[in-house]
Automatic annotation (TrEMBL):
GO molecular function terms attached to this record: ATP binding; DNA binding
The FtsK domain, residue ranges: 113-296
Biased composition (Basic and acidic residues): 29-49
Record-given protein name: Type VII secretion protein EccCb
Keyword Calcium set for record: no
Species name: Mycobacterium kansasii
Amino acid sequence: MMVSASRWAEIRPSLKDQIGTRVELRLGDPADSEVDRRQAQQVPRDRPGRGLAPDGSHMLVAPPGRNGVDMCRHRGDAVAPPIPLLPARVDYDTGQCLAAGQRILLGLEERELQPAAIDFEHQSHLVIFGDNECGKSATLRLLCREIVRARTPAQARLFIVDYRRALLGVVESQHLGGYAMSVRALDAMLPGVVSLLQQRMPPAEVSQTQLRNRSWWAGPDIYLVVDDYDLVTTTAGNPLLAVVEYLPYATDLGLHLVIARRSGGAARAMFEPLLAGLRDFGCMALMMSGRPEEGALFGTSRPGPLPAGRGVLIGRTGDERRVQVAWSPAP
């Protein structure tokens, strides 16, 4: 709706409050201006079309003739360039993904459409939440392959907990420290991991220089990768609680937890000691397609429906980036 009047006072206040865009031409009395009375006095009387824009700057209205319309079209009606969007699928072997170098690649981030990487050196842990078939296991598969690609066996050792065998055969090099596909296998593997962590705890006589350089122990970083975490935590107990006491020292001990869990019941699961400890000590989180009723588990955004492989990567400071996880097929 467009309304014109000789004075602002002629428009009822209830209607005037609903007018979002106001253009003020030369008024009979500049004192009636509701834009800028001083500038209204400078509007010439003998120049039709001259007036004040909403911000108080002077303007000239284009005449309705053909020439004026064409001039406005050429000057201000250029079509804006299309906004680049995340693709529905990013293949792991594309050029953009291969440009990750020594970083642990995750996929493409939406803001700049550049490779998104996981910085395990400054943010030790990653938790992934999502519905079924949203890409949680595929994300773990990609991260395992990236760790193998970017780190030598002397730099990284992976211990994989995979009850549904979605990661079977992903790591077959010397990077693999252990693979647990059942409760019994996990009970056999976990004491070795805990023993390594215990040996790396700083002794009483460690110097400040050694603490600063993390030089009182030598060996590869430990990556404990857990798929379907909700299957590991049962009413009978949670074997992974054995590593909770080492979470405060994870950076010093070279410990990294990468855990994937379904989003159903995630709000309740965040009170579980291991997940609560990870959140308290500032882990990263990848929120994939989930249920809004679970609330904001990390950061401020609630989960919602997303395409497969899509998620919101949340850093320990609360910064959020929407990413498309690179697709790496199963072996």
